[in-house]
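Running log. JK asked me to keep both predictions on one page so they can be read side by side. First protein, sequence followed by its tokens:
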Amino acid sequence: MISRFGLRSALAETAGARGLLLYGILVLAAVPAAAQMPEPLATVLHLTQTAERKVVRDLLRVELRAEATGADPLALQAAVNRRMASALDRARQVQGVEVETGNYEVNEELPQNAAPRWRASQSLILTGRAADAELKLAGVLQSEGLLMSSISYQVSPETVRGAEEDLTAEALAGLAQRASSVAERVHLSVLRYRDLRVGNAETDGQPIPRFAAVAMAAPVAEPGEAVVRVTVSADLLLGPPKHP
């Protein structure tokens, strides 16, 4: 037979054990929740940094066209075909110049106060880094009857890729320095990067074609410079300075 005192002791021990068990469950449940909570004292800093460099446009693009007008569209196409075949044969003999054909068009024109006529044309595109040879070839093709459509210098993909790594390193270094400076001014320190975005190298818009095209002579062109740039951006967490 359990005495009244013993019964009280047993009930007290049971209640104590249940209390400890409940406390342990609450503590264990709170651990992952606390681990998932954002840093309460962190300040988010959004930064963007760009590094850029001027480079010489080193890829020349020349577009010419074989063109003929008249009343017979079939005859015009035959004339354009002959002229383009001759131009392709000559262009393929020049080293360092890539050759391709562009649009081929045959259109009927209806001018006012004049008889209808047809116009046939096909473009020839030359690209390469051997600018002198390419310009000389363009002059020869002009003398053989092709018309100049455009000349423009661009930055070659190799030059862009060559500048990309250095510009990326420069932009990241600038971002880190700027983040430290901002944090110091607001009496905080950089804890870590929360998000980082690094863009690819880009160049400015296409240059305006610049050339002096004279029949029977090679056209003259000046490449000029283009800007290659890399932009990086990041979200950084700032917190109280770390004391030694």
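And the second, directly underneath as requested:
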Amino acid sequence: MNFCSQCGEPVALRVPAGDNAPRYVCDACGTVHYQNPNIVVGCIPLWEDRVLLCKRAIEPRAGRWTLPAGFMENGETVQQGAARETLEEANARVAVGELYTLFNLPHINQVFMLFRARLLDLDFGPGSESLEVALLPESQIPWEDLAFPVVEQSLTFYFQDRINGEFPLRMGDILRLQGPERRHEIRMHRPDQEDSVAST
């Protein structure tokens, strides 16, 4: 941020009086500009034993497969946002069910929320942000070509939980590790148990 949205004057990054973190502050009008994490909402769209995936047409990770998801808009609920993103990216209509995975991604200031959802019909196709859309069984999931750790972890949990027919809420943190290899550490939070840690 370079300029104040209230008065147009330059801003400085500093810790305001009475605060404990750096903020963009306008010395001309005194406005403190707070920046908060973005909420990403999406679906695991299901039809019988298959999951609907989208091949990304845009960066980041263009050409990789993902679940339909995107930034929540003002004026909508998380469920409405998840349904809207599924319609925009896959031209698919869904009945949004329960929240299934919630991941904190502090390195990019995002909170990612995925809902299990039931496809209402099989009339779907790529939206403007997708190259291709496919309804795939577990055996055909392109595990080596998934776009993001959130997607891989959520699908892994889904296929594991489907065996028992129980789908508890899964919460965790995805932390980017140092180095050029794009490796991540996943810390899952479990009620009344120690957190589990895995690397990808």
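Observation for JK regarding the second prediction: The longest strand covers residues 94-105.
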